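Fig. S4 source data, part A: sequence.
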Amino acid sequence: MADSKNTNTASAPQDCTCTKPAPKYPEQVTGMWILAHALKNIGIKNVYGLVGIPITEAAYIVQGEGIRFVGFRHEQQAGMAAATDGYLTGTPGVLMTVSSLGFLNGLTATANATVNCYPMIQISGSSVREPIDLEQGTYEGLDQLNIAKPLVKAAYRVLRAEDIPTGVIRAYRAAVSGRPGGVYLDITTPALGQIMDHDKAMALFNTPVDLKPAMLPAPEAVDRAVNMLANAKKPAVLIGKGAAYAQVEDLLKQLVDRTGIPYYPMSMAKGVLHDDGPLSAISCRSTIMEEADVVMLVGARLNWLLSRGHGKWNPAGNFIQLDIDPEEIDCNRHIAAPVVGDLRSSLTAILAKLPAKLNMDPAWVPELQAQAKEKNAKFAERLTANANVMPMDHWTAISAAKKVIEANPDVILVNEGANTLDDVRDAINMSKPRHRIDCATWAIMGMGMGSAIGAAVATGKSVVAIEGDSAFGFSGMDFSTICRFKLPVCVCVFNNGGIYNGIGKPLDNTSDPAPTTLDVNARYDRLGDAFGAKSYYVTNPAEFASALTEAIASKAPAIIDVQLAADSGKESGHIGYLNPTPLIDITV
């Protein structure tokens, strides 16, 4: 079988577009040109992907239309970049892949975008339909549409070049309307290679209107929510990443300033309102769960991240839920006051009807503030106590990174790992919305380099990616993409030599390393030498702070190997009991 990335016509299959006669430009165009023009016509500025049969020429044409094509080493990372672009801009991020395994590699990211509610479109070339449907063993023959359908928000197939503009518009509307998500657009090789007269192709295009219409909440739903909030004794606002995506921080600030209700942000909602604001209850999660009598969910779901509304949650408490998807209501627990609509419309309606004074218990907020002050002081002591631990542990390194990143609030922080994710999320405060990106709802690893690239390309801002060494392994080769495009991204690899830590021991007498063991002596910084980036190897917090400060200021690609002790980190998932002589206490 020919390599899917090989564009040499000598090894290309006979049904590939590159065996057809070329169009007579400019009088004629191909389906690939129609695709590129359709993307431009709908406002797409960036396309992420990896070229090969049958989309190589399409990528060149995309560039020719003035759209930035960011080429990756792996389709999954290109998809993560597209999803991040969509999340940060509200415009669907676009992934372009080859057929077969290239499609499957990208589909992982598109499925993740669907679960996390990021607007994204995956466009994949596909083989000729007839031999696929008869299972005759065609080149990279795979029924891509039907594989994608169960995993994405919507999926469409285009068989003719004249239908490409319609397919693109339908994919766009599906990706952004209602609850956003990943959409798959399958375009066959014949459609991509089809030749049309230029004037007939141009007649296919119209300017779409109202691509993301407002969805107004029912007045009675707003009244119900306002009444419940106004009469709550211990209310709280819980902010999810949906609020960050919807860019409603201005309305949330009005709500909190007017009412004095405390707020708790989920991980990717950190910074929608200041993490260290006077009404932030970020240190009081357990108290909110146990004591709040009314919790207003704004773009947040009662999924596993919130114990599905059970566990420590006050059984007598009530929920107000602002969500654009009616199917989310009562998903895990009874919602007393659902407000179904887009967040901007719903919050605007609630603010218009809120009374000047609520019936909140006057002791509620002072109690939370006192608790937060005490917990924050203890947390600061922990950071201080670990600031000079040698060799460094996670908290030593984080104590250095915290000062630098909080001093550079416009830097976008990408974060993944196990301990690296949990500890960085808890330690580093965010003061701007959409400046923290992590694995979110599915808690997957392998989004780091793609998300860092997507954030840098979509915003032009500096990005710092703090990665566990295991997490970095999923996507590390696309550090080369950061370097090739000269993006202002600094990658920090917390190297403790393993998954959770580097001291795992096998359970039998095998000479192989333990399943959780990697290489504590690995030198990730040398990737900088390989790809022309500034590189650093740091072993203490002063070196790390200095390197990170310099890297951010340079606005150029950089990588920092942050060397940790092999025993830094604790196991996740309660597997410690499997070790006959546990080396760490996983109950801490």
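Fig. S4 source data, part B ends here. Confidence is low (pLDDT under 50) at residues 1-18, 579-588.
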